[in-house]
Amino acid sequence: MNEFESYISSLGSEAIKAVLLDKCSEGFSSRAGGVFFDIPGKSWPMGPDSPLRPLLQIVVDELPYIPNSISHLMAICIYIDKDYVTFDILSEEGSEFVVREIPKGSTIIPLENPTQNTFEAKDIRWEKFTDYPSASDFFEWLDNQRIDYDFESSDLENALDKYSNYGFTKINGWSTTIQGPSYDEPNVDGFSIQISLDIEIPFGDSTVFKIDWGAKIKNWSCMWETC
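Predicted structure:
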C-alpha cells in the first residue's frame, strides 16, 4: 500500500448506505417515492402552491444500527417541492421542505398522495459500510504534502475507485460535495442524511441533498448543491 492509499484508508468512517431495489412493497418499508405512511388524522403535506413530492421514507428499525438521536422514532418521512427547494431551509409545514417524524409505537396508515408528480417508487435495503471523503479532498492533501502525482496513474485511479463514496444515498459518514472539496468531518454522533444521484432528484444535472437533525434548534434542515 503506497502513502496515498494508506492515508485514504485511515480516514474511514462507519456509515449506512441505501441500496435501491427494483420493487416497492405495499406495506410499511424504507423507500424512495411511492406511498408514505403517517399517524391517523395527518394529511399529505402541502407546499406553497401544490402537494409536496415523497422523497425518502426511513423505517428506523430497518437500519443496521440506530443512532441515539433517532432511537425514539419509528420512521422519518421527507417531502420536497416538485419544482425547487431553497438552498438552505428548515423543515416547516406549508414550505418547500417538510420532514415528518413518526414516534416509536405509533399506529400508522398509508397517506393518500394527491400529486401525480412523484419519484420512481423503490424499496430500500440499508447496509453498513465504511465511508471515505470525496476525491477532491485527497487531491488537496497531496498538494499540501507537496507530493507529485499523475492524474492518469493506475495507482491513483485504483485508489480513488476503491475508496470512492460518490453517487449514492447514505446516512452519516463523510459529506460528498460537487462544487469543490468538503471540509466537514464525518458525522458519528448525530444524524445526517445525504440523498444523492441514485434517487431521482429534479434539480440540476447532479444534485446532493444534505438533511441534518439540529439538536440545538430541534428541527431538520436541508442544504443542497447542484451542477
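Summary: The longest strand covers residues 122-131.
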